[in-house]
Amino acid sequence: xxxxxxxxxxxxxxxxxxxxxxxxxSRGLSLVTYDRRTxxxxxxxxxxxxxxxxxxxxxxxxxxSPGDIGGLVLALLQLVKRTGEWDWRGRIAFLQR
Length: 97
Description:
The protein has 97 residues and is of the alpha/beta class.
């Protein structure tokens, strides 16, 4: 798992959401995000245009606080146990505790 702060020495921090989605997909990575405001419209438009993404996992701050890194990691590990064989390209999931 890569955090955007440390991924590629933070060089993707300044990327807009579309570029980040595009870059993560090109590397075969899924995006884990709390951003349920700006990412969904991009995914909707991409689907309408026939573009794919590397997968997006949305996290709700009411379910797992952004400060609860341990809880986030445990929830992601549980998701991987259930879905480890999935091809995540184009897939959207909502992380639960």
